[in-house]
Design goal:
By secondary structure, the protein is α+β, with helices and mostly antiparallel strands. The chain has 2 domains: 30 residues, no CATH class; 167 residues, Endonuclease, Chain A, CATH 3.30.870.10. The chain is built from 6 helices and 11 strands. Strand 2 and strand 3 form a beta hairpin. Helix 1 runs parallel beside helix 2. The protein is globular, with a radius of gyration of 21 Å.
Length: 200
Amino acid sequence: MRILPALVVSAGIVWFAHSSAQRWVKLPMPATSKGNAWDAAGENHFSPEENLERLDVEYLRKARQSVDVAMFAFTDHAIATVLREISDRGVIVRVYRDRSQYEAEELKAVRFHQPSSTRLLQGAQNVHIRVKQGSERNLMHLKTACVDHRMLRDGSANWSPSGEKSQDNNSRFTSSPEEIKKFDRVFVTMWSRSSNLVIQ
């Protein structure tokens, strides 16, 4: 019977075992980024071990020119407040939403007599919001934001307090030009759909 190789990580060392002889070979650990959460290789962060809301707020405050957002669920008022703040200093913010989530969030806000994240952005001169129309099966399911066409955030975490802080989720940050170029192209295609509902 063939015994598959096994990996064990201990005290910063990778040990590799091969075959029934269990010969252990010491290998160097892969390099990791230090002090730069958004280098070209990317860095992953995980909730609930980490507060992804804090990381997203820090990330968005770096914006100087533009922020393009494609976000499935967006109920986090702290992030909406930051988007309004950066738009007030001239940053162009474009937010693209899924119709089913957008409508559900607006109804819930009315039911509980609270502002939605969209309402918190209402009237901000440099904030533009569009919603994808179409079948509920054909979702806009991205959880992505790009700052200044230089830093990209994606992952599984929606912009909701639970998604950012208590659910099992990740946010990944990268400055890879190739990945950013791909997202920019996809975002322009989504944003330009003639069927979009223009909120503001």
